[in-house]
Design goal:
The protein is an alpha+beta fold and about 425 residues long. The chain folds into three domains: about 170 residues, Beta Barrel (Elongation Factor Tu (Ef-tu), domain 3); about 70 residues, OB fold (Dihydrolipoamide Acetyltransferase, E2P) (Beta Barrel), CATH 2.40.50.100; about 120 residues. It contains three helices and 21 strands. Strand 17 and strand 18 form a beta hairpin. Helix 2 runs antiparallel to helix 3. The longest helix has about 60 residues. It starts with 5 loop residues before the first helix and ends with a strand.
């Protein structure tokens, strides 16, 4: 039969003590090891992230903004003179031409002034004709007198020449020859005086007629002004387009300069696009642009940049250079894109949710297996609407997550399911 050994129980007890000591020693080591382990990478649904691949090649820089279509030419129709609105002939939305009458005003005082101006014109015309006849009669009398003196001078000259011939033949005394010569010289002097007097009176006639003509012209212009003011009581559109707004009512009294209506040409539209002030610094006059009316895309060109910043945006005027799509009208909301420049050979990727120009941000880059992604620091350069230049941190072919990953800011690695 077996005899129990006295040392067996003791050995068993020793083994138990050793096991307990090993376990007690392992617990802090395991605890320390577990404390130093990195937290498990969170799982992310791959279908909920927006990935893109880094590429190299040409990149078109552009900026985008929201805006509206506005007419290139808007004309407010003012009242040329005071009056009372008697009739309003058209309603807003009506197509008009330059000669379309919009309102009819009345002004009894202006009508009276027009009649008086016409009467003054008729009086001035009669006075001018009468003065002209008087001066012409005076000139005719002067011409007759000058002609008489010239005839007497010619006769005296012939007499003197005849007497000189007779004197040489001894048929005429010397005294009579001297008298005939003196008479001829006297008439010659008088003839010269009459010619100068006729010339002076002729010039005086022109001057006096010019004064009378000025009075006649003044009366004519005044009558023309009154007639024009009377005609302007029929207020016309001035341009072809659409009557957009009527600002007065029938019976209202208006003064000169009062805006009565607004007319715009709907065929000549431009886009007023609001660009963020941080993106507007590279926009220049003449750059090409596109305007999306949501019913078609129209090419355009930048024609004006507002020097002021309003609510964080800069207004850029873009002239439309293509045919307008159907439904395009003033105040229509549009999307505008301005092309800044074309970069020929750059490293670029789609623009991330929080990526800005000339900044450094962290992105999750896919591992080669495509199942996990690690956080990397990326330095950006110039940006566009949908793309941004990469200066450091990524290479061609790298796949990164562009969507918002702020919920995983506390981890450097994620697992994609």
């Amino acid at each position: 039969m077996d005899i129990p050994r006295k040392t067996a129980a003791r050995n068993k007890k020793i083994r138990r003590i050793i096991y307990a000591a090993v376990v007690l020693a392992a617990i802090p080591l395991i605890t320390l090891g577990l404390s130093r382990l990195k937290p498990a990478a969170p799982s992310v649904d791959a279908g909920q992230v927006w990935p893109d691949v880094v590429k190299r090649g040409p990149m078109l820089r552009s900026v985008r903004g929201l805006g509206t279509l506005v007419p290139e030419e808007i004309r407010f129709i003012p009242a040329a003179s005071s009056g009372r609105v008697e009739r309003r002939l058209l309603q807003p939305g009506t197509n008009v031409s330059a000669n379309t009458v919009l309102f009819e005003l009345s002004n009894p005082e202006l009508e009276q002034q027009s009649m008086e101006a016409d009467s003054q014109l008729a009086s001035a015309q009669a006075a001018f004709e009468n003065r002209k006849v008087e001066l012409e009669s005076t000139i005719l009398n002067q011409q007759a007198l000058a002609a008489t003196v010239q005839a007497d001078y010619s006769q005296a000259k012939l007499t003197a020449e005849s007497n000189e011939s007779l004197y040489k033949q001894g048929l005429l005394p010397e005294l009579q020859l001297k008298l005939s010569r003196t008479r001829a010289q006297e008439l010659a002097t008088r003839n010269g005086i009459e010619e100068k007097r006729l010339a002076i009176n002729t010039e005086a006639l022109k001057t006096q007629l010019a004064v009378q003509q000025a009075l006649l012209d003044q009366a004519r212009e005044l009558a023309k002004l009154r007639r024009r003011q009377l005609e302007e009581l029929k207020v016309r559109a001035g341009i072809s387009g659409v009557l957009q707004e009527v600002l007065v009512q029938v019976g209202q009294q208006v003064e000169p300069g009062t805006n009565l209506a607004r007319v715009a040409d709907p065929k000549r539209l431009k886009a007023d696009v609001k660009i963020a002030e941080t993106q507007a610094k590279d926009i220049q006059i003449g750059q090409t642009a596109t305007i999306d009316t949501r019913n078609g895309v129209v090419p355009g060109r930048v024609i004006r940049i507002d020097p002021a910043v309003i609510n964080g945006t800069v207004t850029v005027d873009i002239r439309l250079e293509g045919e307008l799509p159907r439904g395009a009208r003033p105040d229509l909301s549009v999307d505008g894109t301005v092309e800044l420049e074309k970069l020929d050979d750059v490293l670029y990727v789609g623009r991330p949710a929080f990526g800005t120009e000339n900044s450094t941000v962290s992105l999750f880059r896919y591992d080669p297996d495509g199942k996990t992604a690690d956080r990397v620091q990326v330095k950006f350069g110039r940006s566009s609407v949908n793309q941004i230049e990469i200066l450091e941190g990524l290479r061609v072919g790298d796949k990164v997550i562009l969507s918002d990953t702020s919920q995983w800011d506390n981890v450097n690695r994620i697992r994609l399911n």
